[in-house]
């Protein structure tokens, strides 16, 4: 598929067709009441927190195709409209989820007709992660081949686009669109197929492609994350900029933290084989070599590797350090280094998980790390704190002009900024620990409870998220070191992630703020993250809100 195309632009001349490609932030009616949320994501988060109904998990586990997803949403809505209790509906869905049978209570075609006109929920639940919508109407496997396992990009693109064309035409009919809208949709698919056929043989012809849509087929050169053109993607191109590496290298907390950890390994690295995932300028590879590693393999898909080669040579480390250009999933390790004793990677992004680089590190761990091997870092911890910081208040009076509408829009985005420590209303509380030595990819979408005790009275305007990075090898005879990105410590290039509330609330010393944090990879851009919070103040529900980090 041509990565420069966007489904939202497929047919600007036909309002009817665009009507079923709902924007991500369209106002969405609650599944169980008349309450209106600002987005489908917030509606889904509320359904999970308030009614324990995780629609995304149901869709994934039952492998529901596009029809099954539409029917499921309308089944819930129609049941509520008929007076069925939310608990009874949720119990029925959970029973079907647990049973896994192909016959489900929402299978009837009557549930294809929307209960809520232009319902954003009908289009917000992504395709099954195992290959898209190649299922029959009953939710079982069809005879259509899945969208993976192809030998060429063009094979994969052709089947994907053929599936998209069929889905669009059938959905237009099911949703009652007119013939011209359906024809236009099919025509767009034909046009896209033509574009994709050319693009399949010319990867990288679009220097700055936008992030792929959720339904994009996985790129054979990059796994399931990032752009569809592998090493030529905008993501990897961004790391060819020298300014980014200057910023990271000059982050003393980060770079010195890794240096101390590697050098502190002692016999765990001396004479050993090391793999550096996303090596950039090669700084960690060279530190490992200086620490006594016999062989170091650095891997990076960015053009920065050209500089890294020169840097390694200039420091006379070419006999120890080998650098490979490509994605971790596609490079071939040197024949004399089939497995490694140590894997080091600086994979952390904003709010820890942004960029979704950790899955690649875990893939390398499972494929190349020897039993009992060392992962640097060994773990990371996520923290949340209450804050009175009012950065968005700037927009209320900009040289005498009211620009508050911009602040309203920014409330949907997670803000990466340096938060003043004096703005905190509570101590940071840890809500999650990610053990890099054992965590699985599937566990990187999760929810966790939190509890904050207010230590300073004020107006709760935001929550602040930061992470600590831990290098703990004490059980292996090494040392334990760490560094933090807390606003109460030395600033880093990661800063903090601020989540601004739509409805600030007054809090007093001793008040308790509780709830759940939800982190999940974005539907449209898999390297991005959606962050949701349930917030209760002294046991009274305050808000459920969702932010995008992308």
Tell me about this structure.
With 550 residues, the protein is an alpha+beta fold. The protein folds into three domains: 191 residues, no CATH class; 105 residues, Vaccinia Virus protein VP39 (Rossmann fold), CATH 3.40.50.150; 171 residues, Hnrnp arginine n-methyltransferase1 (Distorted Sandwich), CATH 2.70.160. It contains 15 helices and 17 strands. Strands 8, 9, 10, 12, 13 and 14 form a six-stranded antiparallel sheet that branches. α7 packs antiparallel against α8. The longest helix is centred in the N-terminal third of the chain and has 22 residues. The N terminus is likely disordered.
Topology:
Blueprint lengths: L14 H4 L9 E2 L6 E2 L2 H12 L3 H8 L3 H16 L4 H14 L21 H4 L28 H22 L4 H22 L33 H5 L3 H8 L2 H12 L9 E5 L5 H8 L4 E6 L3 H11 L6 E5 L14 E5 L13 H11 E8 L2 E9 L16 H7 L4 E3 L11 E7 L10 E8 L4 E15 L7 E5 L11 E12 L4 E10 L7 E9 L2 E10 L1
Parallel strand pairs: 3-4, 3-6, 4-5, 6-7
Antiparallel strand pairs: 1-2, 8-10, 8-12, 9-14, 11-15, 12-13, 12-14, 15-16, 16-17
Helix pairs in contact: 7-8, 11-12
Write a compact overview of the structure shown.
With 550 residues, this protein is α+β, with helices and mostly antiparallel strands.
């Amino acid at each position: 598929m041509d990565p420069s195309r966007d489904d939202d632009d497929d047919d600007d001349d036909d309002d009817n067709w665009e009507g079923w490609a709902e924007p991500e932030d369209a106002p969405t009616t609650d599944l169980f009441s008349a309450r209106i949320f600002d987005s489908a994501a917030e509606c889904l988060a509320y359904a999970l927190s308030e009614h324990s109904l995780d629609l995304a998990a149901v869709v994934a586990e039952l492998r529901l195709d596009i029809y099954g997803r539409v029917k499921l949403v309308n089944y819930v809505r129609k049941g509520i409209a008929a007076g069925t209790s939310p608990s009874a509906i949720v119990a029925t869905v959970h029973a079907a989820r647990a049973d896994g049978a192909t016959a489900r209570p929402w299978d009837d075609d009557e549930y294809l007709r929307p209960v809520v006109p232009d319902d954003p929920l009908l289009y917000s639940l992504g395709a099954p992660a195992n290959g898209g919508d190649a299922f029959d109407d009953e939710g079982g496997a069809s005879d259509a081949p899945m969208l993976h396992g192809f030998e060429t990009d063009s094979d994969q693109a052709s089947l994907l686009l053929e599936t998209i064309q069929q889905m669009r035409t059938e959905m237009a009919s099911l949703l009652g669109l007119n013939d011209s809208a359906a024809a236009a949709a099919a025509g767009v698919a034909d046009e896209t197929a033509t574009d994709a056929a050319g693009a399949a043989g010319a990867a990288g012809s679009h220097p700055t492609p936008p992030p792929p849509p959720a339904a994009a087929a996985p790129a054979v050169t990059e796994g399931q994350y990032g752009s569809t053109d592998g090493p030529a993607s905008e993501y990897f191109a961004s790391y060819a900029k020298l300014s980014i590496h200057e910023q990271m290298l000059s982050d003393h907390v980060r770079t010195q933290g890794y240096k101390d950890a590697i050098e502190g390994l002692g016999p765990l690295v001396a004479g050993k084989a090391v793999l550096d995932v996303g090596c950039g300028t090669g700084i960690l590879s060279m530190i490992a070599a200086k620490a006594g590693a016999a062989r170091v393999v650095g891997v990076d898909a960015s053009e920065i590797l050209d500089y890294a080669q020169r840097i390694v040579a200039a420091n006379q480390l070419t006999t120890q350090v080998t650098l490979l250009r490509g994605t971790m999933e596609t490079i071939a390790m040197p024949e004399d280094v089939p497995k490694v004793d140590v894997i080091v990677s600086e994979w952390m992004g904003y709010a820890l998980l942004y960029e979704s680089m950790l899955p690649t590190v875990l893939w390398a761990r499972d494929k190349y790390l020897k039993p009992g091997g060392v992962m640097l870092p060994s773990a990371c911890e996520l923290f949340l704190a209450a804050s009175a910081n009012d950065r968005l208040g700037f927009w209320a009076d900009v040289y005498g002009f009211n620009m508050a509408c911009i602040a309203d829009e920014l409330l949907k985005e997670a803000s990466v900024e340096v938060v003043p420590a004096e703005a905190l209303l509570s101590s940071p509380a840890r809500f999650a620990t990610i053990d890099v030595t054992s965590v699985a990819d599937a566990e990187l979408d999760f929810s966790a409870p939190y509890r904050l005790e207010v230590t300073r009275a004020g107006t709760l305007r935001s929550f602040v998220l930061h992470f600590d990075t831990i290098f703990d090898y004490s059980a292996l005879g090494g040392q334990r070191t760490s560094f933090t990105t807390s606003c109460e410590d030395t600033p880093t290039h990661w800063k903090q992630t601020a989540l601004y509330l739509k409805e600030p609330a007054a809090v007093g010393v001793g008040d308790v703020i509780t709830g759940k944090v939800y982190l999940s990879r974005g539907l449209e851009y898999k390297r991005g993250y959606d962050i949701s919070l349930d917030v209760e103040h002294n046991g009274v529900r305050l808000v459920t809100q969702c932010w995008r980090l992308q």
